[in-house]
Amino acid sequence: MAPPRPDNLHSRLVSWLKVVLPLAALAILSTLFLVARTINPDDAIPYADVDVADRVREPRITAPTWAGITSDGAALSVEAAAARPGQSPGEEGRAAALRARIDTPDGASATMAAETGALDSDARLLRLGGGVEVTTSTGYHLTTEAVTADLDATDVRSDSALDATGPLGRIEAGSMRLTEDPEAAGSYVLTFGNRVKLIYDPKK
After folding, report:
1. pLDDT per residue over 39-73, tens digit each?
2. What keyword terms does UniProt attach to this protein (predicted)?
3. Beta bridge partners of 75
């Protein structure tokens, strides 16, 4: 008996594959559907829990920043956790968890941190309140209730009682001011006033 011809063997193989491959594909698909994980609606992408009505009533900005250059060349930058613009003409915009920094042309700097803040665009003033901490690169650290900073010129001042530490020791005063030295352009001075009390520390 003559052995089967190669072309017959190839034809039979193709015929079997036409039957076997579709059945195998169906078996695989059936397995996928059987073992597929059940969809849990709770696993959907979470949405932020935002009170839309509250946002419409009181619009606010998250993590706003502001930066500018004063007329004397100092760089002023301000950032906050959140800010709310004024709701009517003339009303000040307000900010929470506010931080400001001034870098003067002589290489010095001062940072301010406050619980609250308000931007008076008409007067070009930044008002910090709720307890303010001021730290300068020259070694002074002071705390006071409120501070006002000019947006157009380097002029940071406080008219409330303050406690400070510096190169000479501890200072108690009723006011302070950081501004350009009127007698030396390009230099800046921090002055204390209104019943100044200095507790000198020779170790400083």
Report:
1. 565 555 555 555 555 555 567 788 989 899 999 99
2. Membrane, Transmembrane, Transmembrane helix
3. 69, 103
Q: What is the distance, to the nearest Å, from the Cα of residue 8 to the centroid of all Cα atoms in its chain? A: 77
> Domains in the chain: how many in total?
1
pTM (2 decimals)?
A: 0.69
Tokens standing for residue 8? 């017959």
Dig out the tokens for 95 from the structure.
């900010």
The two beta strands, 162-166 and 141-144, are antiparallel
Q: CA Rg, the chain, in Å?
A: 35
Question: Is residue 152 a part of any domain in this protein?
Answer: yes
CATH number at residue 88: 2.60.450.10
Calpha distance 95→61 (Å, rounded): 9
155 contacts 146 by C-beta, under 8 angstroms: no
* 25 has a pLDDT exceeding 60: yes
